[in-house]
Amino acid sequence: MGWLDRIAERLMLKARAEGKLSGLAGEGKPLPAHPEEAMIDTGTALGYRIMAEAGVLPTEIVIKKEIDALRLALADLPEGEDRRAALARLADLEMRHAMAQEARRAFMR
């Protein structure tokens, strides 16, 4: 266990002793399943979940949602100028998503 883990553990034990961890929303219930979390590590997934519950989403997740929506829209677009523009937008979003992922990974190192 590293020094950061020990500090976090002590803070959690202190909060529990002071009663700050009881009576929280969803206490004693399993966390809901989120399939997208299977693609990232548990710690990052937990951080994302906390941010989402607070109404804050990281850029990486916002872009991923845009990509998913655009892929659904592309399925119905016929060949033509609109489809080419949508494909160019998809390529741009995928590049921005990869950059956001890499920035997160670099930050977590």
TrEMBL record:
Q: Give the top-rank taxon of the lineage listed in the UniProt record for this protein.
A: Bacteria
Pfam families attached here?
A: DJC28_CD (PF09350)
**Residues covered by the DnaJ homologue subfamily C member 28 conserved domain:** 7-74
Q: Which PANTHER family match?
A: DNAJ HOMOLOG SUBFAMILY C MEMBER 28, OS08G0560600 PROTEIN
Q: How is this protein named in the record?
A: DnaJ homologue subfamily C member 28 conserved domain-containing protein
